[in-house]
């Protein structure tokens, strides 16, 4: 697909395999990759893997719930590279409860991961992209945004990303900045047993679970020149589960 060689790509949220796979895929495409997460050890590990591919990489431990910490991090990145070309927001808090069990603490946790962090990173990075007349933003959300029993906190906060994506796409379109969203379904990492994978697959129309690589390929498409005429869109990477999501939980 091309188009991201030598671009500066920021990936926020790399504690899961999806974030790592996206980062390594960008490195394979020749991008300079900056990874951000709260876990410094995890960040350092991924940075070393990227450098092992002979690509430039930086890593930052970030408190995503602190807007000042996010701003400081973005300032450091721009001081180093001059501009940020690609942003991937990959934070995820998927644990859900019925409304009566959503305590203030649980609600704030969902807000912080699923909505606030996306907003903070976009607020700090998108204006610079617009000024530079180039940018690609890919927000990653989950199929929970469609709704489901015991998912009130997840559905509300992940649905907010949909509205943010569309609004930013309209604001930024004339400046050659595209804003899109990948909606992931059931994605199996290496920690999922074969039994768990089979149980998940039974609820998916294609009868198999997705892999982190499936999400990374979708993200790479939105970041590439192949998607230069695509903005404000939602791409479901879910094996068809979104077609009857609320009926299949």
Blueprint of the fold:
Layout: E1 8-12, H1 17-28, E2 32-37, H2 40-51, E3 57-61, H3 67-81, E4 86-89, H4 104-132, E5 135-142, H5 152-172, E6 177-184, H6 194-201, H7 212-223, E7 234-237
Parallel strand pairs: 1-2, 1-4, 2-3, 4-5, 5-6, 6-7
Helix pairs in contact: 1-7, 3-4, 4-5
Tally of separate helices? 7
The biggest beta sheet is recorded as: 7 strands, parallel
Oligomer type: single chain
Topology as a string of helices (H) and strands (E): EHEHEHEHEHEHHE
The amount of helix comes to 40-55%
Order of the strands making up the biggest sheet: 3-2-1-4-5-6-7
Low-confidence spans? none
Describe, in plain words, how this protein is organized in 3D.
- The protein has a single domain, classed as Rossmann fold (3-Layer(aba) Sandwich), CATH 3.40.50.
- A seven-stranded parallel β-sheet has the order 3-2-1-4-5-6-7, with helices on both faces.
- The mean pLDDT is about 90.
- The longest helix is centred in the middle third of the chain and has 29 residues, at about 105-130.
- Helix 1 packs across helix 7 (about 210-225) and helix 3 runs parallel beside helix 4 (about 105-130).
- About 45% of the residues lie in helices and about 15% in strands.
- It is an alpha/beta fold.
- It has helices at about 15-30, 40-50, 65-80, 105-130, 150-170, 195-200, 210-225; strands at about 10, 30-35, 55-60, 85-90, 135-140, 175-185, 235.
């Amino acid at each position: 697909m091309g188009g991201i060689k030598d671009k500066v790509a920021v990936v926020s949220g790399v504690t899961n395999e999806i974030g790592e796979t996206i980062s390594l895929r960008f490195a394979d495409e020749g991008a300079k990759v900056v990874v951000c997460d709260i876990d410094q050890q995890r960040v350092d590990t991924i940075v070393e893997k990227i450098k092992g591919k002979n690509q430039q990489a930086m890593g930052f431990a970030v408190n995503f719930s602190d807007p000042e910490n996010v701003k400081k991090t973005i300032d450091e990145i721009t001081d180093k590279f001059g501009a940020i070309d690609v942003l991937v927001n990959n934070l995820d808090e998927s644990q859900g409860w019925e409304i009566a069990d959503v305590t203030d603490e649980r609600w704030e946790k969902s807000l912080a991961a699923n909505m606030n962090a996306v907003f903070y990173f976009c607020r700090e990075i998108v204006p610079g992209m617009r000024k530079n007349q180039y940018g690609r933003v890919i927000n990653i959300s989950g199929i929970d945004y469609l709704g489901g029993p015991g998912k009130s906190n997840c559905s509300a906060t992940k649905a907010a990303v949909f509205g943010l994506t569309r609004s930013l796409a309209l604001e930024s379109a004339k400046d050659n900045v595209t804003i899109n969203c990948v909606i992931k379904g059931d994605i199996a990492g290496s920690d999922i047993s074969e039994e768990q994978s089979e149980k998940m697959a039974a609820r998916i129309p294609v009868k198999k679970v997705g892999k982190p690589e499936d999400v990374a390929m979708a993200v790479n498409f939105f970041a590439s020149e192949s998607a230069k005429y695509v903005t404000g869109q939602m791409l479901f990477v879910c094996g068809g589960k979104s077609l009857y999501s609320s009926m299949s939980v």
